[in-house]
Predict the structure of Glucan phosphoethanolaminetransferase (Alkaline phosphatase superfamily).
Amino acid sequence: MSTGLLLNITICFAIAVISLTFAWVLAKNKNLEKQNSKPTLYALITFWLLVAFTYYPTAFRMIAAYMNNTQVDILMYYIAAMPFAFVSVPMAYIIIYVITGNNQVSSYVSVIFAMFGISYLTFLLTNGVIEPVVTSWSSIISINSNIAINIYLLGLFIIPTAMILGIMLLILLRKISKRMRYHTVLLLVSISLVIDFMLTDMITTFDRMQLVARTFVLIGTVLAYLSYFPPLTLQEKLGIRQHKYEPFDEDEFMDSEDSDYV
């Protein structure tokens, strides 16, 4: 097997396994979370499940590419595109809920992002894809629809990224605990890395760029895990040591709105 394809397959499986494991750990410990944090926790679990369900078929797509099975390659691409189209939905819910604390408003915004995802899938399935180009590093499939790409860039990339950057800036300006700042900023950075480089992964036409993008997605999944379970040495160095890490505490964030900026 080509070393490049082997590495690609390994990275895809690693992303899927870490994401699924992280979602399982969060779900297993959901009863320990504060009641006001549970809506964002459920959205976070959904987000990482969607990432996992995107990269499992992607890994099998790389295996099919190595075996020169074009039909399975394309089929796995379509399967991976379905969860991929909706990764921004739980992300939007998390950010809006953190800002407003309103479940209804967060749900409405999530529906808008879901409509972007449905539109993307509609154009993708209607127009199809160009036959994959298999190299020693990867299998590149191009979308045969500029409209689908534009919908993706606007609804699933530009707006979500801007939302993440906005909430990160707001958090950095608020007076909140070191633990909360570390946890939330690192979690948002990880989500931003995952969403941004998943986009690069799906639309790039360069095999090595795709591999680099998947490497950064993998880094994002690891950072997400570290945002909840940082090593003891890091906890001590940052002065954030405690036994359990919770999702963003909306009460702490909302209460800080009346505080002066740091």
About this structure: The longest helix spans residues 38-66. The domain at 3-258 is CATH 1.20.1070 (Rhopdopsin 7-helix transmembrane proteins). The longest strand covers residues 133-134.
